[in-house]
Specification:
With 363 residues, this protein is of the alpha/beta class. The chain has helices at 7-21, 61-73, 94-97, 131-147, 161-168, 171-180, 182-207, 239-256, 273-277, 300-308, 326-334, 351-361; strands at residues 29-35, 75-79, 84-85, 101-104, 109-112, 152-153, 226-230, 259-265, 282-288, 312-316, 340-347. It folds into 2 domains: 39-73 and 83-211, TIM Barrel; 214-363. The strands form 3 sheets. The chain has a 7-stranded mixed β-sheet. A two-stranded parallel sheet has the order 3-6.
Length: 363
């Protein structure tokens, strides 16, 4: 037996998710994926890695997809969950498409500039035959043809435009550039933005015509062009610089897509939340308190502000100390759950508990 899913379930996912985006579902979206289900699927010849870039050139796209397929066969999809794979080449991989050095580390990926170029001489240009770009397109095309719409192929982690620039001008240099060479920063920032959209379209086309819709590393699904935008660099910026260098490009990119979330990473970004919430095209926020901070149940003011602005909320189960209580706590704090997307990854041994959980929230 292969992947435990059907076209009928896909139609249910699409219709319910569409209603949720439109504010008409009347309940939260709850994606539950439980791994460890018994399967008769053949064991793949290569190990499953968390980063697709860990597979060297001797491993074919078909072998990578064999690994993904085997894991999907071992997964039970419950609630609003659907089969999805995420080709993970590291955060902000567009920098590698543009010539940055991608290095696989200990359970992570690092991106470094190939050489030190002053901001005034820096120019970001497309490299059509870039090996990382060719590799990811090959993997996406083979996966799309293999599954023919049964599995959603999520967009790789493209990164944010200013984050891409920060790869070529590592943090301290870019901070000085913002003061000393603001015109050059804006010039390259909009180059990065144009390339971002070019790669988004190119990678989306590689998954066509079979891909059910659009998704990303946050596992948010949409039948219309969608992404979870970010600017991790902006935790080092004040509100004035955020409005000058980040907000215009963020607004422009969000308007070109249909269903957009923003990845709000760490307390250092809370100072920008009001400005982000004013962007009409951003429909939701994924708030990440960060390491060493209280879990998501301890930020009622943040979630109340997001909800009062008419935005949606995204939460991963690992962001809560007690993942089975997070929705009930959030309901008490903000008075509703119909604007929430909750993503839970667990083990098949939790299935009975999950069934009770779903009965409470998916009526």
């Amino acid at each position: 037996m292969g992947i435990e899913f059907s076209e009928q379930r896909w139609q249910k996912v699409k219709s319910d998710t569409k209603a949720w985006w439109e504010g008409m579902l009347g309940r939260p979206l709850i994606q539950i994926r439980l791994k460890g289900k018994k399967t008769e699927c053949k064991e793949p010849s290569t190990p499953l890695y968390p980063f697709t870039s860990f597979y060297d050139d001797t491993v074919s796209a078909d072998q990578i997809i064999d690994c993904w397929d085997h894991q999907l066969c071992q997964t039970r999809f419950m609630g609003d969950a659907f089969p999805v794979v995420f080709p993970n080449f590291g955060p902000g991989v567009i920098a590698a498409f543009l010539g940055a050095i991608l290095t696989n580390g200990n359970n992570t990926v690092w991106l470094h500039p190939a050489k030190d170029i002053e901001i005034g001489s820096l120019c970001l240009e497309c490299q059509p035959n870039n090996p990382w770009l060719c590799r990811i397109i090959d993997v996406i095309r083979v996966a799309s043809k293999r599954w023919r719409g049964m599995v959603q192929i999520a967009m790789t982690d493209l990164g944010g435009s200013l984050d891409i620039l920060s790869t070529f001008r590592p943090s301290e240099k870019l901070l000085f550039d913002l003061y000393d060479h603001p015109a050059d920063v804006n010039r390259i920032l909009w180059q990065a933005s144009a390339l971002w959209h070019r790669y988004f379209e190119q990678l989306s086309e590689a998954a066509a015509p079979y891909n059910p819709g659009y998704s990303n590393w946050a596992l948010i699904f949409s039948e219309q062009p969608s992404y979870i935008l970010q600017c991790d660099f902006c935790y080092m910026l004040g509100p004035d610089m955020f409005k000058e260098f980040v907000l215009p490009e963020l607004e422009s990119t969000a308007k070109k897509l249909s269903n957009v979330f923003y990845h709000l990473d760490g307390p250092g970004q809370l100072v920008h939340l009001d400005n982000i919430l004013r962007v009409d095209a951003i429909k939701g926020i994924e708030w990440v308190p960060g390491a060493g901070q209280p879990d998501v149940t301890h930020w009622p003011d943040v979630y109340k502000k997001i909800t009062d602005a008419g935005k949606k909320i995204h939460i991963f189960h690992h962001q809560a100390d007690n993942p089975f209580e997070v929705l009930s706590i959030l309901k008490r704090q903000i008075g509703r759950l119909d604007n929430v997307l909750y993503v839970f990854d667990g083990d098949i041994s939790q299935e009975e508990k999950i069934n009770r959980f779903l009965k409470i929230y998916m009526q």
